[in-house]
Amino acid sequence: MAEECTHDCSTCGSACSERQENPQDMRAAPHPASQIKKVIAVMSGKGGVGKSSVTALLAAGASKEGFRVGILDADITGPSIPKMFGLKTFAKGAGIFPAESELGIKVMSLNLLLSNEDDPVIWRGPLIGRAVTQFWEEVEWGELDFLFIDLPPGTADAPLTVMQTIPLSGLVVVSSPQDLAVMVVKKALKMADSMNIPVLGLVENMSYFVCPKCQEKVEIFGPSKGEEVAVVTGVPFLDKLPLDQRLAEHCDNGTVEKYSSDLFKKLLQSTHLKAETGGM
Amino acid sequence: MAEECTHDCSTCGSACSERQENPQDMRAAPHPASQIKKVIAVMSGKGGVGKSSVTALLAAGASKEGFRVGILDADITGPSIPKMFGLKTFAKGAGIFPAESELGIKVMSLNLLLSNEDDPVIWRGPLIGRAVTQFWEEVEWGELDFLFIDLPPGTADAPLTVMQTIPLSGLVVVSSPQDLAVMVVKKALKMADSMNIPVLGLVENMSYFVCPKCQEKVEIFGPSKGEEVAVVTGVPFLDKLPLDQRLAEHCDNGTVEKYSSDLFKKLLQSTHLKAETGGM
Description:
2 copies of one chain form a homodimer.
Chain A: E1 35-43, H1 51-64, E2 69-73, H2 81-84, E3 91-92, E4 96-97, E5 99-100, E6 106-108, H3 125-137, E7 143-150, H4 157-165, E8 170-175, H5 179-194, E9 199-204, E10 209-210, E11 217-218, H6 226-233, E12 237-240, H7 245-253, H8 263-269, H9 271-277
Parallel strand pairs in A: 1-7, 1-8, 2-6, 2-7, 8-9, 9-12
Antiparallel strand pairs in A: 3-4, 5-6, 10-11
């Protein structure tokens, strides 16, 4: 039995004597060298609302709080996590080991496996699903308190595969104030509900912009609708994030860890996270 | 033979005596009632850069110039075109007819077929590809000068299927100034190249924001890189569009046709469009 056993065999690969398998469960076990306490997927219905930035901020926040953290980049055809953390290659060895960021966050992404980061991955759905499953089953993550999964946008293959094969503690859903994004976020919430995955919280990104010259607060994408959507759908509202030049800059420069955010602390306080996962 | 024969049987469904089929060609013919002169797909590597807005602006621009225009919304799991044009249902009849916007733009989208626009479409790749092909083969588009296709982001199933089965005159590629989006746009360009689809132009969206109070021009997503990318990749640079509150508002209100833009005129002037398609 692992030193810090959570009694949830679905997130632990160790072949200990107390291992219990649920024959009804179609979820896959991680690599035997992986012991992962909580797996949180970050989802958005619509692309470009900053899902990957939110994943990065959550991971960096958790790491700064002293947790052991990993990111599985499931956005196979549009991976952006490695660039945000300034990572180019994964660790080579006898097995498949994730890359490690400056803060020690473990990252696995298809872009780390390409010889040229500009190469397109022209793959059909089943192959994409297979890559995501491999990142879960064959990568040696080691011991992690939190594994964040950056899902591709939409409700197609990759999010489906993750929800079916990886035992998720819950989802964080990211939206922007645009009506369009809100419509698509409702699709994402319905999908999570139909697959019995608890939604830990909703983040509204790009809520407003503060002009660096005159400090005017402008709601570029229209008035905030996050709290309203949260009330209608019964999902806890985590935070409202501005459209911030400095965050875009940090993401482009590979220094996202240097951006300060208390998003993870808010997630940790989410009663849903406590209820669904028994706290930390 | 159709009255305005283009001698390109791949974009015409009419079973006339002069019909020539290329046995090597894997592309599908449209519905017999469809005669479509030019098919232009709008693509982006990364989601959320405003691909659907660009599609809408191009279509509205073409319609205002007197062309007969259609939009095939291939963004099956995150369709946003109907909302931008204020459309809720498609025309019912003996066949499948597209909806028509105020300007007379014909639109077909999966969202027009859902009983509730918030319902998620949890489909795997092959089914998504099939829906897109059906929109091409089974919808009665009638006579069109331009059919614009709003592709889903990325380089997975739906763009693949469109590029393989629909005879495209060319692609318009949309990016934002973020390094990340630029990296992913290069993937999209390489994909187009590998499939021999001409790229008619690159549009940089969200290039800058003008503060409505003090008129300060802010490059929220970093300095513009579109022209540079265009030079490096040899793709013509079409336009640089600002992040505009009014456009977001029009898209949310279903009045995108009321927003004025000369993007289509710039596309029409693109030497690539003239060279690749023999002009209009």
